[in-house]
Amino acid sequence: MDTIDLTNRVWFKDVVNRTINGERLTIEKIFEFGGKLLDMELSLNPISGKSGDDEGISFLARNITQRNLLEEKLESAHKHLYTSRHMTSKGLFHLS
Q1: What is the 3-state composition of the chain as percent helix, strand, coil, each rounded to the nearest 5?
Q2: How many alpha carbons lie under 13 Å from residue 58 in its C-beta half-sphere?
Q3: Statement to judge: residues 45 and 55 lie in one domain
Q4: pLDDT of residue 1
Q5: Could you tell me the CATH number of the domain that includes residue 42?
Q6: How far apart are CA 37 and CA 81, in angstroms?
Q7: Same domain as 59, residue 72
């Protein structure tokens, strides 16, 4: 935790405490690593023991930066296609 800045450290401790208390969480958050901003998906789940009591947590983090960039490009292409179809149906043409 020493490499996490103070704001994120407080946030992370809160998330861990919520999970320890039985809450299942999936969170998308932007973090800075090595001078780069990365979109991360964090999944935290409580681990129950034989007695049913929460005994720990499962933590998984994955980089979803590329996925989010591709989703943005796809949305932009969809909007461009929709606009082109709409303009064509009205007799307006857009050449670029």
Answers
A1: 40, 35, 25
A2: 9
A3: yes
A4: 45
A5: 3.30.450.20
A6: 30
A7: no
Residue 9 CB coordination number (10 Å): 13
- Mean pLDDT over 42-67 rounds to 91
Distance CA 1, CA 8 (A): 10
Q: Please report the pLDDT score of residue 74 as a whole number.
A: 93
| Residues spanned by the domain of 17 | 1-63
Residues 36 and 78 in one domain: no
Q: Is the domain of 48 the same as that of 10?
A: yes
Residue 29 to residue 42: CA distance in whole angstroms = 8
Averaged over 54-79, what is the pLDDT?
A: 92
Please report, for residues 28, 58, 64, the alpha-carbon distance to residue 19 in angstroms, rounded to integers and kept in the order given.
16, 9, 22
Q: What is the DSSP letter of 46?
A: E
Dist CA 11 CA 42 (whole Å): 13
